[in-house]
Structures are given as structure tokens and as C-alpha cells.
Amino acid sequence: MPSDLSHIRNFSIVAHIDHGKSTLADRFLLYTKTIEERTFHDQVLDAMDLEQERGITIKSHPVRMLFHSKNGGDFVFNLIDTPGHSDFQYEVSRSLAACEGAILLVDASQGVQAQTLATANLCMRQDLTIIPVINKIDLPSANLDLCYEQIEELLAIPREEVLLVSARTGVGVENLLEAVAERIPPPKENAPETLQALVFDSVYDVYRGVVVDVRVVNGSVRPGMKLRLYSTGEESEVKEVGYFSPSMKPGKELLPGEVGYVITAIKDPLAFHVGDTVTAASNPCKEALPGFQRSSPMVFSGIYPMDTDDYEALKYNIAKLRLNDAAFVAQPESSVALGAGFRCGFLGLLHMEIVQERLTREYNMDLLLTYPSVIYHVYMKDGTMKEVDNPQYMPDASAIDHVEEPMIKAHIISPSNYMGPIMNLVLDKRGVCERTDTVDHLHVMITARLPLHEIVLDFYDKLKTITRGYGSMDYEPDGYEPGETVKLEILVNGEPVDALASLVNSQRAVARARMICERLSEAIPPAMFKIAIQGAVGGRIIAREDVRQLRKNVLAKCYGGDITRKRKLLDKQREGKKRMKEIGNVNIPQEAFVAVLKANNEDEK
User: Fold this and answer.
1) pTM for this one?
2) 495 lies in which domain range?
């Protein structure tokens, strides 16, 4: 195996979701004989059940391949497969930080999509060598001329540089591997005597503790040496090093330019930070390596265990998941109704859904998530500003001067005949279409500005519905803008329920309050007195539903006689129910919270 830097190539495969990244990675593994035909299965690098079921990549997966080029001898290819959904952009940025080049994949039947454009710009900002590839050329619906036109117009890449492949059949794969060896530059080593390695991923192993994925930039790592984490200064001895092929294979050492894993004696899941620099304790480096682009959470939600006794288990499992998912943040919080839990931050709604699924499947947790919210800037009358992502911490309305909500700039690429429905959807979500650009004679790109809160719920699903699946969207933060944001409180028998409070636009408050009140009235069991469920904004009741009361038939023993006797019994019953309502407590069952918090977002519209 070659050990000099000139025969090492580190690259990623990047593309829009479902354009064939995992299939092409499978073909690479088969062609280079990294994996045998008898053990092969589709999506080899997608190890999670969720990835196999949904057909998407959630985690980046490094793998080492040996390739014999016809022109330049033997090469070591370090491939890092990347996700395609915009929610997992942080995974892509981490992968690119460990690479010198990228294969940019375009579906021959769909052309350049919104995420393709965003990922290409990310590669250009990191000064990576891009190899443009049109995939799925074997499909009857493939339109190569359209793809060439879009690549030249949107990505400014000459069509002469574009390669044609079919990852499913293997056509053009050999030429693509040769292009990787020729076009992508080898890694550089600046200070060979000093160890510098970039931590681009990590995972928690039950038996061995923290397994760290690293890209060695300078120096080398071998078992027995002592490492130091640059950010914390913590030191530990290296127990094992190796690489992925695609399973973990122990090795003697990791040399400059190589990608592999390191296992130390550190067992604490929170000790390592993705993006940190690992150096030698005996000869530490002077400065940290430039890391990947850090992503800030955009969507927040509370995660609570169904059984309050599971809080400690949830705390430990969240710590392990955070090690494996750098963009997932969590901090403890408590609710009067739901008990102890965590306030968690996510990059988007799919990211939130994946985290919930992983906690449920991998760690066997039974969870409840609260209504998602975003970060609002609340400006007080005394001139101060507070960042609020939790309705519980929203100040009193009388002390607020104005509230600003986060905005995003969305780039939507779609066939031109769906432009009208897309614009109506943007307007319905309180957005503004800023401009439209013609991509080619069949497609347009709409640039719109919308509130982030409006798109985290169901915007992407609605976009796919109205465009018959052909529309794609990518978005980026675009500052803050004043908005009519109010705190919606839900009162049960006159008492506010903090777990059901939410921050909403004043125009949507009534519809959401009615939906929650209806759900609760169906889920809360009847009591001996009438229970009022109300939605309130600033002390003003905007919606109400009643839970029917159980009633004893006090007239059953009356077989006639004067009507005043019956009235006397009914008045006595009414007085008793009035006293009961004043002193009675309403216990809201857990099923009621589940019914409301897991309600379909379509009910709000």
C-alpha cells in the first residue's frame, strides 16, 4: 500500500437527496474489491435502520479503498459519503473539511436541484476541486442536454469537464475513479514533526467508549502515544488506531493525509468536540486546525420521558447521541405538567424527527416532544433584548416593545408550470417572492423570503405535494424582522398548562387555539363537573371548548308529585357541582398531551 502523500486522495460525494450518492459509493466499493460480492447489499455505508428504511443518508461514513490506476500506479482513496437533505448540511461541511475534492452528482432525469447548488457553493467556499458527474444516464427519462445546460448556467462549469456514469449498472465508474486520481490534488503536510488531526465525527461504543474519526493533517498517530485535546487540554493514551474498509480494521499507525479512527482511554461521551484538533501531549501544536462550518440550531422543542423514572436514562442517552450528532444541542428544563426533561435544538424538522427516532430505537426510550419553536428576539421597553426559544420565558406583554422573528431566504427550483401554486404557498406562509430566474426552458428558480417558523412545520411537504415531487428547496438564515408574535396559553379549569403554551403569529393564534382546545376536550375524561378548556392571548380568551360533565340522575326516585320537588333536587345538585368546580382539581392524562403535541399539522390550517 502506498504511504507517500502523492498517492492519497481524500474526497466526498455530494448531491441533492436521492440523486444516487450511496449507490455510487456501493459501486466504488465493488469495483475496488473493498467489499466482496457475496457480502454486498444495497446502501452498504448506510448502517442505521432508519437510513435503510427511508433510503436516505443521515450520517457521514468514511471508507478506505485501494485503486490501481492505469496511468499512475496504486492509490489510497478515502471516501466520505455525505447526506443530501438540507437539514444535514452540517454533516456535509464536516466531511468537506477533511477532503481536498468532491464528486458533485446530478441526477440525469431531475437535473440540478436546490441542494445541488447549495452544496456546490459550499465546496467552492472551501476551495475544493469539483468533479461534476451526471448519474442515472441509463434511465429512459434521462435528459443529458438539459443537465449540461443547467450545470453551465447555474454552476459555471464547462460541459467538457462533466463525466457520465450509471451507478446502478457501473457504466463510466472506472473513468470516474481515474478522474479522482488525476484531478483531485493530494493532501499537503506543513509541519511533519507536530501532530495535528481534525476530529470530523465520533461515535460511542458500549464496550470501548468513544471512537473518534480523524483526518491526520500533520504528524502521525499510533497506539501507545499520548494525545491531547486542543480545546480542553485533556490527555489520554491511544489504545487503537485503524481505518474503515468499510468495517473497522486496526492498523499500526495513521500517517499524514490519512483518514481513520482513534480509540483512547476516554470514556466520557462529552469529552470530545467535533471540529476539535487532536495533538501530541509531548509536542503539542501551536494552533488549532481550521474546522468546518459550525451550524446553530434553528428549531427548538422539549423532549420529555413518558415515565418520569426514565429521566436519568434519557440524560445519559442524549449525552451519547450528542457525541454522534454535533448539531444536536440539549439542556435540562422542567415542566409543571410533564416533569423533568430537556430543551433541545435541531437544524430542522427532519433532524428533530430523526433524533426522536434514534432515541426511541437505539436507546429504547418512550418520549414526548413539545410543539417546535424558533429563536425570537424580544425587545423590552427598557431597551434590552432577550432571546426567547421557550414560551415559558416569554416576558409579560406589557413590558415588550416589539418582537422580531427569524427569517430565511429560500431558493426553490421547480418546473415552470408549478410557479403559480408555489407563489400562493409562499404567500400563505407570510412570505414574499423576491425574484424568479429562468434555469432553462423548463425550470425556474424562485427566491423567496419567509419566516422560519412557517417552514419548520410542513412547508417542504406541501411544496412536494403541489409540485408532484419535482420541486426542491434550500434555505439559509436571513436576519430578523419585526412580527406580530404572541404567546398562546392554554387554560384548563382556569389554570395555565405550561407544556401546551406556544409562540405563534397573531393571525394564526385563533386557529391553533381552537385545534388544541378541541383535541383536549376529546382526550380529557369527563368529571363530575364541567371543565372549561380555553385558549388565551394576553389574558384575552380567543377559543373555548368544554369537557362534558358526568351527572347523577337525582330525579330517578321521583315518580310524580309537585314540580317544585324536582326543582329543589336539581338546584341542590347544581350548588354541589358549583362547589366541586371551585375546589376540584383536573388531572390531565399523559394521553391528552400526546394527542395534542403529536397532532397533525394539517389540522392547524
Assistant:
1) 0.67
2) 486-604
